[in-house]
Design a protein that fits this description.
alpha/beta; 14 strands; Rossmann fold; 6-stranded parallel beta sheet; globular; 8-stranded mixed beta sheet
Length: 385
């Protein structure tokens, strides 16, 4: 198959957010399975940074085209600012493709993709990546967008690929709200590339750099956004009061650092945004992963933790009941006392951590590698062909 993947942002997998890592992981796995894949994206890396490399490159068989936007601030903050020459570029690529797969719902690109797919009579799929509900942020903007463009985009989609059963219900609710016919909805989760985590050797260096010694370490990895529950996690960790344990927050600030700042101490650290070898070293040093989030889609960080063999403390909104069923995680309400109890249990029991860690690795190997996920996505694509 010749596949076109369209996403608002794209960069190397371990540099940026979960959607970026998901798109790169899927696209790369599809190439490895013999498909021709092009990623059409923008040059935006963050609210202040543009990609400075080539605008059109092919790496290991995957072609990536990055179109410049006029305002990276508008793009990074509001997901607006139209990519230059997007319609013409998309039209040419779609004419050669069998299927176009858009990532995220509320983008200016989708307005043009819907029009082009109708003219070409080509399937257009969309993956929301946990962004549909207003609880995930930007509620006023999302409401305005849905009133203006929601029905136009929803009615033009051939189908939707949800990450979880809960997101499938979110899709149905949104389509009902914008008065569009309910689409076909397939469920295909995110995946992980296990070889990226097979030989971790940086744990001791990370501990030495941050003066952690041999303390039992709980790690939060992700954007510091209020809905991620960072302040709740800090308060729960302090309530657990496990002697010698340390809580480490790693990630770019997205509005929650001022809330977290008063709780920082020798026991509760913030090490900033990590990428590449530094990110892997943090995973290698960690003993427990925690994400008491609300409004989460399907956490790539949770998958990474399980792939490394780290037990997790998750909230129901992480939408990963399979992790608890497999004995790899505790799923508790995002409240101080339940999170504190789960942290205390794990941080004081190395044997339990080892057992749960092995269960997590087995779960990822059986269902959540990118090769497994790409095979499921192939079946979805074939339905539309």
């Amino acid at each position: 198959m010749n596949l076109l993947q369209v996403t608002p942002y794209y960069a190397p997998a371990y540099s940026y957010g979960g959607v970026v890592r998901a798109v790169e992981g899927l696209a790369t796995a599809l190439v490895e399975r013999g498909h021709r894949v092009t990623v059409l994206t923008t040059d935006v890396l963050s609210r202040t940074e543009r990609f400075r490399g080539p605008s059109d490159e092919t790496v290991n068989g995957l072609r990536v085209i990055r179109l410049p936007v006029r305002s990276i601030w508008l793009r990074g903050v509001l997901n607006l600012s139209r990519p230059q020459n997007f319609r013409g570029t998309a039209r040419a690529l779609m004419a050669e493709a069998d299927i176009t797969h858009a990532h995220e719902f509320r983008t200016v690109e989708n307005l043009m993709l819907v029009s082009e797919s109708r003219q070409l009579r080509q399937p257009l799929l969309m993956s929301p990546h946990g962004t549909l509900t207003y609880a995930t942020g930007r509620s006023v903007l999302k409401d305005g967008w849905d009133r203006l463009f929601g029905r136009q985009i929803a009615s033009g989609l051939s189908g939707v690929v949800a990450l979880t059963a809960r997101e499938r219900e979110d899709v149905r609710a949104l389509f009902a709200t914008v008065r569009a016919p309910e689409p076909r909805i397939d469920i295909v989760p995110n995946g992980i590339r296990l070889e990226n985590f097979s030989e971790l050797t940086g744990g001791q260096a990370f501990r030495a750099k941050h003066d952690l010694g041999d303390a039992a370490m709980c790690l939060f990895m992700g954007r510091l956004h209020p809905r991620k529950g960072v302040d709740l996690l800090a308060r729960a960790f302090l309530t657990a009061n496990v002697a010698g344990a340390v809580l480490v927050f790693a990630g770019a600030d997205d509005g929650a650092l001022p809330i977290l700042q008063p709780l920082l101490s020798d026991q509760v650290r913030y090490v900033g945004f990590l990428q590449g070898a530094d990110r892997l070293a943090a995973w290698d040093a960690a003993d427990v992963f925690a994400l008491p989030a609300t409004g989460e889609g399907f956490s790539m960080a949770a998958l990474e933790a399980l792939a490394v063999g780290i037990p997790a403390v998750l909230s129901p909104d992480c939408n990963f009941p399979e992790a608890e069923a497999a004995g790899a995680a505790f799923i508790v309400p995002p409240q101080v006392e339940p999170v504190a109890q789960a942290l205390e249990r794990l941080l004081t029991d190395a044997s339990l951590r080892r057992v749960m860690g092995h269960s997590g690795v087995r779960l990822v190997e059986s269902r959540y590698t990118w090769d497994h996920v790409a095979a499921e996505m192939e079946s979805v694509y074939r339905h539309y062909l």
